[in-house]
């Protein structure tokens, strides 16, 4: 019995194209469409924004389920970026490359926010200061105590994390705060710390510490402009609350 007639080169090419269309993963078109929506400036939900990041780390897999799993685990886009690397790695499908890309995006966001305050008089750009503090600390899993050291024109000299603690406490020593201020020839300070619980309301310990630093700084000619507490639910200013 005679075999089927051989296909022409054109027929073979058409068959290969058809097979490719049938076998091409559905997410390929989705990636192009999502990138196009982003390029047009469309507002994207958190899981789609996460997908855009994951595309780079995971080039050959549908990443929508992984993006949604991250949000279920941590709550929001910002909380995913702020999560500790070891906690991110607990999510199935998250490897070192994904963790690295997420932390790079987090660091980039912090640098952008810091750039808005670095060369400006901080007291005249208070909203930028708050945005920077929230970007840097609001979603950190443990308490951090940060110091913004200012010169006599209220420009930023240095931005340093003085200490990291547990989920609800960071040891802070007044003498170390002032020693560092004198080393930098700072004439003013802004104190900042985060509440991982999300609620930025100051505790009695927060108020007591702030007042101790204010009292000790005054004889040295150092002004404490404010103590800002940040959390997922917003921020609190002890100066604004008339607690200092």
UniProtKB/TrEMBL annotation:
Transmembrane parts of this sequence: none
Annotated GO biological process: proteolysis
Pfam families: RadC (PF04002)
Assigned keywords, A-Z: Hydrolase, Metal-binding, Metalloprotease, Protease, Zinc
Domain MPN residues, every copy: 122-244
InterPro entries associated with the record: MPN (IPR037518), RadC_JAB (IPR025657), RuvA_2-like (IPR010994), UPF0758 (IPR001405), UPF0758_CS (IPR020891)
Protein's recorded name: JAB domain-containing protein
Keyword Transmembrane: no
Family listed: Belongs to the UPF0758 family.
GO MF assignments: metal ion binding; metallopeptidase activity
Highest taxon of the lineage: Bacteria
Record flagged with keyword Protein transport: no
């Amino acid at each position: 019995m005679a075999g089927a007639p051989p296909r022409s080169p054109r027929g073979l090419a058409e068959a290969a194209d058809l097979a490719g269309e049938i076998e091409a993963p559905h997410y390929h078109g989705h990636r192009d469409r999502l990138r196009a929506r982003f390029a047009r400036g469309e507002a994207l939900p958190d899981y789609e924004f996460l997908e855009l990041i994951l595309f780079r780390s995971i080039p050959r897999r549908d990443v929508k389920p992984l993006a949604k799993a991250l949000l279920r685990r941590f709550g929001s886009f910002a909380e995913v970026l702020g999560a500790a690397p070891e906690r991110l790695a607990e999510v199935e499908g998250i490897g070192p490359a994904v963790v690295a890309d997420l932390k790079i995006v987090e660091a980039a966001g912090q640098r952008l926010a810091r750039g808005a305050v670095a060369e400006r008089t901080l007291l005249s750009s208070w909203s930028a200061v708050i945005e920077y503090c929230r970007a840097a600390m609001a979603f950190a899993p443990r308490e951090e105590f940060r110091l913004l050291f200012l010169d006599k024109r209220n420009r930023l000299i240095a931005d340093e994390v003085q200490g990291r603690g547990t989920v609800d406490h960071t040891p802070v020593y007044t003498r170390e705060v002032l020693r560092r201020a004198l080393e930098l020839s700072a004439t003013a300070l802004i104190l900042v710390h985060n509440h991982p619980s999300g609620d930025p309301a100051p505790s009695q310990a927060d108020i007591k510490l702030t007042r101790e630093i204010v009292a000790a700084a005054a004889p040295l000619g150092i002004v404490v402009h404010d103590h800002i507490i940040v959390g997922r639910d917003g921020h609190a200013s002890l100066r604004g609350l008339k607690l200092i």
